[in-house]
């Protein structure tokens, strides 16, 4: 590094480093505060003032959540849609991207244009709702979480960029050996595409884990997701005690449900984050080079 | 792959590519069902849609929905709110990731830089449901740790219900938007900065350029195309205020302030069941978005030769 350091420069470096530390504290503190409050005794927590450490340690909040049947059911639904939805979307979007990556494909330009138009124009939420609910009759059935989310243009473009960069020789020699494109895609291309598959799977998993909107529109009582239960508790937060009594709990219990559910829905993301964040960034890089 | 091109009939070519077609066509069909049919469904903005008659047979009523719309005071309020909130987000939220990227790039220890980067991405991956949950918990006037801190530092008075006040709504919207997205949005700038030839900086140091001058004369001009493209996209997005955030942050005290186009369209169309009216609001929003994007793109091309399309 050839940098002449002045005293002013050193002062700036120090200031900058402190500013970044402050930024990290602001970013992380909300997560931290929710976790310590969730491990505090709920009645005691209602007094407030929990800032750095639980005052009266207790796992009561979690007991409330784990005793709650609808919460457990929502957890199962959420995990199921995350696993099935991500896997299905990666294969479905990947298959399209692979087809489009072949220049000899009949209709390639048309298909690509159809995909790109959807990035700029949409019918809006109401016609979409009508198609899904009234014409396809998916409302209230589990596939409503999977099928409408099978395809994503941005992910298709990321995968397309990756497939195009694969060496041609590998596929051509397989073709000479008599393999068709289906076999090539599943047995040859997918196994060597692990980095991009990981990235796209993670994007989809985060999307499914976090989604509440489609659960609100299409889910109904049987298909509640964790985020949607959380949303119901939060959006009635201004009168927690009212909703709590509606659900047959005390207000302490509603607050417990809220805290513990927040932690339970956040932790998978926070804990897997250090291991997977490089894959997230990879996607942005491929996408931005392309765009 | 034969060396000599042989003219084959279309049907034959498709038959030869049947396996590729099996891979590609399901997604094409999916796009028709989930994007193109809904686009066609926009026509209900000009109809009196009834579920029984559907997209195809509902009676046409011309521009009646739009006439009603432009006379509707709640609609006018939602247009005003949408622009107010989006402009505030543009003014404060747009420069934030650029500033963060520049500051991150000045950090001396690269390991520290990577750690800060990774940590600031994290909120991007949690849902708005959680962010709003955090807000209710941390800003609760009786128990919230952040509310207590703000009272102690004198920034707010005692007993102020931050989440239940139309007054602080705009500030909270902008602050949480930045909190959630600043790190993630800085990635693209950092990538652009990483692509700058280091020799430029070395030459500038030789010439005795100060740090600030190097940023001003090398870094900023080099990433100008990226900044402009993102600015065009943000201007195009001025009418698309974040539905998740607005919908979730509204409560009985803030619902007037949170009444933006996307929320109003949803409430009219799907909560009140006025499908055609809600679609008309959505169509208005899309048209304005497109117009804004076009204008931003046009002026950027004229002024700086950079454009998106």
TrEMBL record, chain A:
Origin: domain of life: Bacteria
Family matches, as InterPro entries: MetI-like, MetI-like_sf
Keyword presence, Membrane: yes
Keywords carried by this UniProt record: Cell membrane, Membrane, Transmembrane, Transmembrane helix, Transport
Main location: membrane
PROSITE patterns to which the protein is assigned, alphabetical: ABC_TM1
Residue intervals of the ABC transmembrane type-1 domain: 75-270
Name this polypeptide is given: Carbohydrate ABC transporter permease
Taxonomic lineage of the native organism: Bacteria, Bacillati, Bacillota, Bacilli, Bacillales
Automatic annotation (TrEMBL), chain B:
Protein origin, superkingdom: Bacteria
GO cellular component: plasma membrane
Membrane topology term: Multi-pass membrane protein
Keywords: Cell membrane, Membrane, Transmembrane, Transmembrane helix, Transport
Residue intervals of the ABC transmembrane type-1 domain: 79-296
Transmembrane segments: 20-46, 90-109, 121-139, 159-179, 215-239, 275-296
Subcellular locations according to the entry: Cell membrane
GO BP annotation list: transmembrane transport
Pfam families documented for this protein: BPD_transp_1 (PF00528)
Protein family (similarity comment): Belongs to the binding-protein-dependent transport system permease family.
UniProt name for this protein: Sugar ABC transporter permease
